[in-house]
Amino acid sequence: MPDYLYIIIASSVSLLTILLALALIYLVFILRDVTKIVDQVDETVNKVQDCLLKPIALTNQLLQIIRSILESANKKVRNKKE
Fold first, then answer.
1. Checking CA distances to 26, which of 7, 18, 58, 81 falls within 20 to 30 Å?
2. Does the pTM of the predicted model rise above 0.85?
3. What average pLDDT does this structure show over 26-54?
4. Selection from 63, 67, 65 nearest residue 55 by Cα
């Protein structure tokens, strides 16, 4: 009689081990897909940053140049008034 118990326990543990191994394999596949998605999102974010930040940086440089020109013109006007 106890032999049946050992067979049932062994088969249950074996089945549970197989199911756990399959679950881990599916988890690896899911994580691989998530990694691909994260890489694509990272590329998209970098493209958007390039499209937005480059014009802003250029505008900032242009404004600094214009500011320096206006400051020098303002100094010349002040010097002429004196």
1. 7
2. no
3. 94
4. 63
